Amino acid sequence: MPQKTFVSFIVIAYNEAANIARTIASITGLTDLGDHEIIVVDDGSRDHTALIVDDIAAHNPQVSLIRLDENYGRGYARRTGVAAARGELIAMIDGDIALPVSWLTITRAALHDHDAVGGTAVPDGDVAYIYKRFRLVPRATEGTTTVAGSNGLYRRGVFEVANFDPTLREGEDSALNHELDRLGLSSKTIPGLLVRHEEGKALATSLKWLFETGRGATRQLLTYRELRQPDLVAGAFVGSIVLGMVLVSRRHRTAGAAVPLIFVVASGAQHVRSRFDTSQAPWTMVAAAVAIDSAHLTAYFAGRVTGLASSWRRLGMHSAKLAHPDSPVPARIH
User: Fold this and answer.
1) Pairing of β 116-122 and β 187-197
2) What is the value of pTM for the model shown?
């Protein structure tokens, strides 16, 4: 593959005023950049993201802005960018990612043997708020998605046979990876290729995102029937709830309430330890990080359970419709 192949960088952004300029600068600073375009898809931001991109584009003709009129979600934003891209290679970058200068050189070389490649974001997205709050030293941890949406380089031919699902607000990158596998296309996480992740979500927004991520993870499990470590942990959480309910029914209320609480805090402690090097951090800071991570995990587990309940409800409605095909479908109450 020629080294100077035209590359389209698609940057999706939602309320990334604090990060978008740095992300674009990290792209324009890449070695071996050659002919390229940078398409920023502003997914209905309510801050000054679009204004910042407009100002950058006024001084850099390679930068352009697609501004969506509302927040449609990651799948729609990514697909919109792909439709506008002109490059023979398409790079997908999140608006809170800073690339190392060698990113394109490394990923382009890896495409000799694969159809899609990417690096690892540090810190991991599920602990980005904790990193921002406490600045613990992050660890590079292997993700559950081979080529994550945060940073990936694709041959254009990939999007001639597959694409991001525009209905998915999260998990769209995982869904695309499954589709690539189904089509027999090759993808790879490049060992040692790290990108910096500077997420700007507030605590409430982060909790909401973890809840939605949990719902999406349940959807993925039911869709692809692929058991991952997060599924095992979520199953153990449900087991702790069941055990707690049994203890409460036997009049051990304190123990019944304590079982799921202890499970969540223990999971939070393990999660923080796996994502950060806590050996040099003050114990008070680590304890606070574990407390916040436990809240994040609770939101995630709640999303897992809610996703399962929603799937059962949809399955029940589908079964009822098959059993009584002439029965009217209840209208949704708004």
Assistant:
1) parallel
2) 0.86
